[in-house]
């Protein structure tokens, strides 16, 4: 059985007959988040990750347990604290976390969320890792940021083989070692990122941090030593052992690796000015930092910093998309559980026709999102050996990241409405999900930046449009609405490459149409026919409206039942 629900008797306190507790859903209880998710299991198998079913089922039981769900709640309610000095007055710049955070980090590292495709480079490894991250996000998204940074940094580090040889073993290790100290002395390490500066934001080419080559042996050039001086407005995972960062060197903006500790056992000149007091993602630390003559080593060629760091960003955008899809699923679980047990107007909520319509619409949105991120993960699996998949990944990644980041907050809000007032208090998990959802639209590029990046990709790599359309063509012939959407996109994508600048003002419309059409194509190929029909009708026949406006009919109840975690 995928779920064990704890029963709670309706009770009345002695002497207080007005304080009866009744018509409240029981606690969700122990839930295998993988085995209870029909869509996730199906998508993993369809995209080549079926070999990991046992691993995912075991991990789904762990993260869906009461113990790990409570760890997520506590870690989020007890945010990290900055300790700039020790009790003797020495500067230490350390971030202290609640024990719940460290336990979640240990669980995720042992599951290899941070490294599975590097440790097991075989077909389906990106898909399996995406599913692991999807499950972990449903316990607590905050820990998934350092996992994503560590995972993605390896792609950039491989631009500098000598640094990769030194750092990869502890970065890829399936263990957790939060101690400070030189990376050579640790059995496991993590990587963060520091790119954004307050005067430039997304325009990293406006960065003013300076890099000066060390004098003497080993200074300057790829892999060489540098001194960095500057201010970074956002540093992700400042408790990490190393950081990829951008700075202006003699030959232009370049990428550098900043170690937290130096080989002689002393602390590098890495100063945390403050931790950001964020709306969400509160269990995770984000910081404002300063480099003051900080030692670093160049990664890749001088002046190629953006190209080097984008190898990391392409992967972190995949993780941001996974997070959005996972939050949708977690919110849907809460809404379905509540509606299945709460009664109003002489009926269970789930049996009310209008509520069934709303829940079915949420279920369709969640299913499409899940299938979308798993299909994108498969493209990363095949990119090295398949030029078409590589081009598809380059084009689809910003499309998927943009769209799911926009859709997740709305779905969580709708799920809150299903629960009513209970969802608006902190005893519920939904306020945490609601605060978490907007960050996906900001991290790794805000919406406009993402859309412009997609236009540039189409202009520079026309094969990306061809690969995207080829993916859509796999679903042609079974749905008039989908065929029309594919034909219209074919016309638009065919001319975008030569008119990218002129198309900027309409880039969001184009990206949204690409995303909806790709979702509809995946639903048509893999979902139940009636689910695909309702999705196309709601998402392709005009702009999507509010949830709960699907065409009435008996299929809606079947869609709801298929999405329930206890079925």
Structural description of this entry:
The protein is an alpha+beta fold and 567 residues long. Among the domains are: 3-8 and 23-156, no CATH class; 161-172 and 179-300, Beta Barrel (Butyryl-CoA Dehydrogenase, subunit A, domain 2), CATH 2.40.110.20. It is 49% helix and 13% strand. It is built from 18 helices and 13 strands. A five-stranded mixed beta barrel has the order 5-7-11-9-8. It has a two-stranded antiparallel ribbon with strand order 1-2. The chain has a two-stranded antiparallel sheet with strand order 3-4. Strand 8 (242-249) and strand 9 form a beta hairpin. Helix 10 (353-382) packs across helix 16 (507-526), helix 11 (387-419) packs antiparallel against helix 13 (447-460) and helix 15 crosses helix 16 (507-526). The model has no long low-confidence stretch (mean pLDDT 93).
Question: How are the secondary structure elements laid out?
Answer:
Layout: E1 3-4, E2 30-31, H1 38-46, H2 53-63, H3 66-77, E3 81-85, E4 91-96, H4 99-110, H5 116-119, H6 125-137, H7 144-157, H8 161-172, E5 191-194, E6 210-213, E7 225-236, E8 242-249, E9 252-259, E10 270-275, E11 286-299, H9 305-341, E12 343-344, E13 347-348, H10 353-382, H11 387-419, H12 430-436, H13 447-460, H14 463-473, H15 480-496, H16 507-526, H17 529-539, H18 555-563
Parallel strand pairs: 5-8
Antiparallel strand pairs: 1-2, 3-4, 5-7, 6-7, 7-11, 8-9, 9-11, 10-11, 12-13
């Amino acid at each position: 059985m995928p779920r064990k629900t704890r029963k709670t008797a309706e009770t009345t306190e002695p002497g207080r007959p007005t304080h009866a507790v009744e018509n409240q859903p029981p606690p969700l209880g122990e839930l295998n988040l993988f085995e209870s998710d029909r869509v996730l299991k199906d998508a993993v198998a369809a995209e080549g990750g079926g070999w990991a079913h046992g691993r995912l089922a075991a991990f789904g039981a762990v993260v869906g347990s009461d113990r790990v769900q409570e760890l997520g709640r506590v870690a989020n309610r007890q945010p990290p604290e900055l300790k700039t000095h020790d009790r003797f007055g020495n500067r230490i710049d350390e971030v202290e976390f609640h024990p719940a955070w460290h336990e979640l980090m240990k669980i995720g590292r042992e599951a290899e969320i941070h490294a599975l495709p590097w440790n097991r480079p075989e077909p389906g490894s990106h898909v399996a890792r995406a599913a692991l991250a999807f499950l972990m996000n449903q316990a607590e998204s905050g820990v998934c940021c350092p996992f994503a940074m560590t995972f993605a940094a390896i792609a950039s580090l491989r631009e500098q083989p000598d640094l990769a040889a030194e750092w990869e073993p502890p970065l890829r290790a399936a263990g957790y070692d939060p101690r400070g100290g030189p990376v050579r002395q640790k059995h496991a390490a993590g990587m963060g990122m520091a790119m954004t500066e307050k005067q430039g934001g997304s325009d990293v080419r406006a960065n003013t941090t300076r890099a000066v080559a060390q004098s003497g042996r080993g200074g300057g050039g790829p892999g060489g030593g540098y001194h960095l001086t500057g201010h970074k407005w956002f540093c992700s995972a400042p408790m990490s052992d190393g950081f990829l960062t951008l700075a202006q060197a003699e030959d232009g903006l370049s990428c550098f690796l900043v170690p937290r500790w130096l080989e002689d056992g002393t602390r590098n000149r890495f100063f945390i000015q403050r931790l950001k007091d964020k709306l969400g993602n509160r269990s995770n630390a984000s910081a404002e930092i300063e480099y003051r003559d900080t030692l670093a080593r160049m990664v890749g060629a001088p002046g190629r910093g953006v190209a080097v760091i984008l190898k990391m960003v392409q992967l972190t955008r995949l993780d941001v998309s996974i997070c959005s899809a996972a939050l949708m699923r977690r919110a849907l679980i809460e809404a379905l559980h509540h509606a299945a047990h709460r009664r109003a107007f002489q009926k269970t909520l789930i049996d009310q026709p209008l509520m069934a319509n709303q829940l079915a619409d949420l279920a369709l949105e969640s299913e499409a999102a899940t299938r979308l991120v798993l299909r994108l993960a498969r493209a990363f699996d095949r990119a090295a050996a398949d030029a078409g998949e590589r081009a598809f990944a380059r084009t689809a990644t910003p499309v998927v990241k943009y769209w799911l980041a926009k859709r997740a907050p709305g779905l969580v809000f709708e799920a809150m409405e299903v629960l009513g007032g209970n969802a608006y208090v902190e005893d519920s998990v939904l306020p945490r999900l609601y605060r978490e959802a907007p960050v996906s639209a900001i991290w790794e590029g805000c919406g406009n930046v993402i859309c412009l990046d997609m236009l540039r990709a189409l202009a520079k790599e026309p094969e990306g449009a061809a690969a995207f359309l080829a993916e859509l063509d796999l679903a042609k012939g079974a749905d008039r609405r989908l065929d029309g959407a594919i034909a219209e996109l074919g016309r638009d994508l065919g001319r975008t490459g030569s008119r990218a600048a002129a198309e900027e003002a309409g880039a969001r419309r184009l990206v949204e149409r690409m995303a909806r059409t790709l979702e509809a194509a995946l639903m048509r190929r893999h979902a139940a026919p009636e689910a695909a029909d309702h999705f196309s009708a709601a998402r392709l026949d005009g702009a999507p409206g509010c949830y709960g406006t699907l065409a009435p009919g008996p299929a809606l109840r079947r869609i709801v039942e298929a999405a329930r975690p206890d079925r």
